[in-house]
Write a structure and sequence with these properties.
Elements: H1 9-33, H2 39-44, H3 46-59, H4 69-73, E1 76-78, H5 83-106, H6 110-137, H7 143-148, E2 152-154, H8 165-184, H9 190-201, E3 233-234, H10 243-252, E4 255-257, E5 264-266, E6 271-272
Antiparallel strand pairs: 1-2, 3-6, 4-5
Helix pairs in contact: 3-5
Length: 283
């Protein structure tokens, strides 16, 4: 059975991205090897090093076969690539980038630099237009492929995709658990269960409600969050609470113990704190 003619767009784009990532990995490895060398000497020869890396990548892929490393990983190849097109592929992918990088490093003729910048901008525009055309027709995702007239083809035939049912079962179970936790956890009243456990633990040591009026000053702190009380409230003991701290507890349970003094606080005793001016009578 002959190889399949159809090649999915995503495989062609992935092959291009893999080629770029392989080049970046090699470039980073070279930088790590030369990191202890003088920086000026390495940077001076960086365009030549990049061109040499691209040459080696080409030599061990398209020079000896009809597919790049990225295509080999995805079982693709160029169906109509010959020796002349392979050499032109190397020239088109290496020479323009090398000339631009070398000219930027040497600070050459300003007119020539401007010309190269315009050519680079035109090349980027062509890449963008070619990408739009590729998304429409599904072939030749790169301009160099369009210029050389080469197309990607699959080296394998279409085969039914094997799906492991154990893998599918794990995925379904995991997603089901995630949905359960996402929906169920917000419905659990954590305040209620926390106070229920406290009541069970301290059943024999309950403290009666201490009806006293708290006083608020600059050093006062919420008995629950230990911050300056916001919209302060109290429920019978001498400690103050933030409005949200106290109402959240009473929304969970009718009564709970003060975390500071252990007094039993009830919903009906909750009041907004009102500052009272104290008048000192000297007699």
């Amino acid at each position: 059975m002959p190889p399949s003619v159809y090649v999915s767009r995503i495989n062609q784009i992935d092959a291009t991205q893999l080629d770029e990532e392989i080049y970046k990995v090699l470039r980073n490895q070279v930088k790590r090897i030369t990191e202890h060398q003088p920086v000026d000497g390495i940077d001076r020869w960086q365009p030549e090093i990049d061109a040499l890396l691209k040459f080696f990548v080409w030599y061990f892929s398209l020079r000896r076969g009809k597919s790049t490393f990225g295509q080999q990983l995805l079982n693709l190849h160029y169906e109509n690539l010959n020796r002349a097109k392979s050499v032109l592929y190397l020239i088109l992918t290496v020479v323009p980038a090398y000339a631009r990088d070398r000219l930027d490093d040497t600070g050459g003729n300003g007119r020539l630099r401007g010309c190269l910048d315009r050519i680079a901008s035109a090349a980027k525009l062509l890449e963008f237009i070619n990408l739009l055309v590729f998304l429409n027709r599904g072939t030749q995702p790169r301009v160099v492929e369009f210029l050389l007239g080469i197309r990607s083809r699959s080296t394998t035939t279409h085969k039914p995709r094997n799906i492991g049912y154990s893998y599918m079962t794990r995925e379904l179970l995991w997603h089901g658990l995630m949905e359960l936790f996402t929906i169920g956890l917000p419905m659990i009243n954590l305040h209620y269960w926390k106070h229920a456990v406290k009541r069970l633990v301290s059943r024999g040591s309950r403290t009666s409600v201490l009806h006293s009026s708290p006083r608020m000053d600059a050093a006062s702190r919420c008995a629950y969050c230990n911050e300056t009380p916001i919209m302060p409230m109290h429920a019978g003991c001498e400690h103050l609470f933030c409005y949200y701290c106290l109402t959240a507890h009473f929304a969970a349970t009718e009564q709970f113990q003060c975390v500071e003094c252990g007094a039993q606080l009830r919903r009906q005793d909750a009041k907004t704190y009102e500052a009272r001016s104290e008048t000192i009578h000297a007699e």
